[in-house]
Write a structure and sequence with these properties.
Elements: E1 3-4, E2 6-9, H1 25-37, E3 42-46, H2 52-64, E4 69-75, H3 78-87, E5 94-101, H4 104-111, H5 115-130, E6 136-141, H6 148-161, E7 165-170, H7 177-190, E8 198-203, H8 210-219, E9 224-227, H9 241-250, E10 257-258, H10 266-277, H11 298-306, H12 334-343, H13 351-367, H14 373-386, E11 392-400, E12 408-415, E13 418-425, H15 429-440, E14 446-454, E15 463-471, E16 474-482, H16 485-501
Parallel strand pairs: 1-10, 2-3, 2-9, 3-4, 4-5, 5-6, 6-7, 7-8, 8-9
Antiparallel strand pairs: 11-12, 12-13, 14-15, 15-16
Helix pairs in contact: 1-2, 1-10, 2-3, 3-5, 5-6, 7-8, 10-14, 15-16
Length: about 525
Amino acid sequence: MKDRLIVFDTTLRDGEQSPGASMTAEEKIRIARQLERLKVDVIEAGFPAASPGDFDAVEKVANTVRQSVICALARANARDVGLAADALEAAAQPRIHTFIATSPIHMKEKLRMSPSEVLDQAVLSVKQARNSTDDVEFSPEDAGRSEPDFLCRILEAVIDAGATTINIPDTVGYTMPSQFGQLIRSLIDRIPNSDRAVFSVHCHNDLGLAVANSLAAVLNGARQVECTINGLGERAGNASLEEIVMAVRTRQDVFPCDTLIDTTHIVPISRLVSSVTGFPVQPNKAIVGANAFAHEAGIHQDGVIKARETYEIMRAEDVGWSANRLVLGKHSGRRAFTERLAALGIEFDSDVERDEAFARFKDLADKKHEIFDEDLQTLVTDRAASQVNEKLQLISMMANLSSGKMPSAEIVLTVDGVEKTGRGEGDGVVDASYKAVQNVFPSDSELVLYSVNNITSGTDSQGEVSVRLQREGRIVNGHGADTDIVVASVKAYVNALNRLEGNYNQVHPQLSGTV
């Protein structure tokens, strides 16, 4: 009998720490529902102490998801652990994940605490967490640079205090696979009560080794892997869930364990996370990239035609590439539309919300002949984005582009319900449109990212635009989609301004240091 490898998804927590990737509570619920369909074992929903918004999001996810364990992160202090317990009160299967730094540099420079003080604080926090739930996880932050003897001491103590999962983070992505695997094996062998806890790993991708380090740890006894959809995460990202799961599933001759993940939902949730965050998936990304199962070289094509296994080590259908590719059009009815969205993990809270979405679908179908799953995901996400703190609303726009003349644009917006018109000229129609918006609503923010991505193929494809604005250290992402790329660009810019002006963007937990 193979061991079970527990999949701990932290897209909603660590993934959200990517600058500009903050999600609303409603967006977190959409992703959490799809993670539940994926049969993820543990969903880390957020860091309740980071902000009231994050507390609310964790609480809502805990109220919604029943099949997966819902986890909340907490620093090793009484306030954080208490807030985590409160946010998880309605969870069917709650877990509190508490952490404290254990490397010499973190203890000295960040915490200003002695090793003995760190150990005592860790034990106190685990005991407090156990008063609320039997499922408690502990992480020694920056374990990859911690002294092994001290790691053994603190981990033995927190297991005695009631920790049921011990997570070893490579917080700064510093370790090598052989080194990290040996660390996990050494800890399991040296800690007297290690058999009373599941050992877990949480690897960052600063050197591109997060997946390799995670798999090395699994081969050395780890039975939980913390990861994110598309490898989303702060700095260079985290270990990619889809790569971990498919590596273990594909190489069962190597791994003594397997996951319970329903892999046919991998591609749909990859698209959902990309759409919600505005972070496109690179075409050559393993498993979920557009080119992951594409073959252009003649020799490869000939081999695949004769026998798929010559150049493909897994089936595209097994990760959801073809299973969910149903084309809808303007003649499709309400039932087909609703069932397709349900299959994509998109549900409506009311008939009114469903009818409004169906009306937007019909409008889009009049503009483009075929509506793909990607279009449906974007249709819902774009509407949700437009409803975030709507201080500004785009009413109409007109752009002019002519050879030999300066591009110009005219934008009609409402600002707090008052209609205003702005005009602008620029190097191109997008630049002119943005200057027209600034003419109506001046902003001292800096545009630090402008990204365009086609959602499907064809000249009638929707364009998906992501912009990132920064002001006084605060970073927000804006998202917009339309069959006209200039309109999509303005939608994204207005959405980002709304987020910047509102209370949407939370204080991220990395400001205090996290795993």
